Fold Vacuolar protein sorting-associated protein 51 homolog.
Amino acid sequence: MAAVTAGSGAGSGPAGSPEATGGSTGGGGWRRPHGPLQRYYGPSTAEAAEAAPDPTDINGPHFDPEVFMTKVRNECPLGQLLAREAALGQEIRALDSDMQTLLYENYNKFISATDTIRKMKVDFRHMEAEMDDLAANMAAISASSARVSAALQDRHRRGAQLAGVQALLRKLQALVEVPGRLRCWAGTEPARALRCHARARAVLRHYRHLPSFRAIEDESHAIMADLAQRLRTRLRLVARAARERVDRYLRALQTFFLGCLGDVRQALAAPRPPGKEGPGLPDLLATLAASVLGQLKAVLAYVQLFTARDVAFASLPYFKGEFCVTAVREGLVVAFVRWLCRTARGFADGPAERGAPAAPPALLLLLARLCLDYENSTISYILTLTDEQFPPQDSGPAVTPGPALCAEARAAAQRLLDHYVQVQGAAVAQMLRKSVETRDWLGTVEPRNVRAVMKRVVEDITAIDVQVGQLFEEGVRRAQSSDSSRRAFSVYSSSRAPGRYAPSYTPSAPMDTHLLSNIQKLFSERIDIFSPVEFNKVSVLTGIIKISLKTLLECVRLRTLGRFGLQQVQVDGHYLQLYLWRFASDERVVQGLLDEVAASAAHRCLDPVPMEHSVVELICERG
């Protein structure tokens, strides 16, 4: 069996052939083909196939002698087996010879190695003993380290507790010192005092159920209340200064408005060279309104510097709310608007100073239009602008509502327009009064033309119509009859007969003319002479005409007329009828007043013989 095994290691076959061994070295031994390149590139495909488990590979890790012998007996003939046995015997003898030679050559080395191994075993046992001692020491050290770590942790925990106690003591000490610090900083550093109180307030409130903390909190609150009062007092050296500046701006606005009014009066009174007209009323009104509004905007811009972001006290509600509402909105804007309305109304209500010129009617008309524009749009715009630049606080003081200011402006405009009608009506009435009072109505000659004063009245009314039309709308007129300008002007009513006014009339006549006149008044529409006028041209002219004709009526009632005086009144009345009806809102107003003038003249006439209507028309057309 040994021969078979040796022969199979060097003979042919899968495991012992020379091809499988890959050659021999110079010493005749077999060398496995392993190297760095094979380890780097890995085994080839054939090597990988050979590396599979093979129980017949005598040099492989999976060699099985039984399987190998069974295969050899089954595959190899007897002659080959014998040859393989002889070859294996030779190899065994050669290997034994080589082993003996190797043993002889390395005997001393084997002896030295054996001694060395023996010493190493002894040393290893010593090292094991030392390692056991070291392990025991390490265990002791670990136990000591655990005890030290526990001690350190306990010390750290106690240190943390001590630090907490110290921090709590510091906080308590700080809380105890809060009143003193507040009292010290309240006079010199109020901001620092406020920060200190803000930090301590929450803690004091949380522990206020304790008597000591409640005492500290009460004392701190008292100190802060006193500080707040002192700060409010100081904020009032500021609010008062701001209010004084606002009052100065208000006086500046008032002075500016009075200067603008002076310029307007000068422009209205300036003489006009022939062929050259000055600025009209619309231009003067636009200039005045724009100048005043622009000056008010400039003043608001100056006042807004008090509420700038870089001003420390500007953001405080205590100052900002009161300043924006009380000082700016009410004390400046509302006060100026009210003063403007009072000043404008003063031209109508206040008595003129002795020697001072009265306000020209054109100025009254212009101021009335200015106040009306303020009521319509300017006041709303000014208040909106003020509220945008100086927003009021929700819980601030009450403000003057816009409709209240608009009502004041409208009342001022109404009073000015009424006064304008009275002034212009009085001017026309003064001409009519003088023309009646200075004429001899008993000794006058037969009328041949219209008196010059009547022509002047129509011219003045026309000029007033042009003047009022520059600033106010036309207005609504009542539908006119088709023959308004050609209406017959009679000194008798429809119920009277001319024969009743014959020279033979005596007071004992059956029907008194005064009674007839009174009966006629009962059925005629009552005319209110001094009723408020509306804001339009027709209403203004109607008011002036009513005042003028009413004055003419009263003057005629106080005179005694002859025949020609009655006829002159007839001619003048018809002339006024031809031209004045177109200026009035209702022609019946003019007709009614002129009828009363004619009736009064007939009543006061000693010889009431009227002129033929055709002659009256001819004279008026020629005039």
In short: The CA atoms of residues 135 and 481 lie 139 Å apart. The radius of gyration is 67 Å. Residues 244-270+279-426 form one domain. The chain has a mean pLDDT of 77.
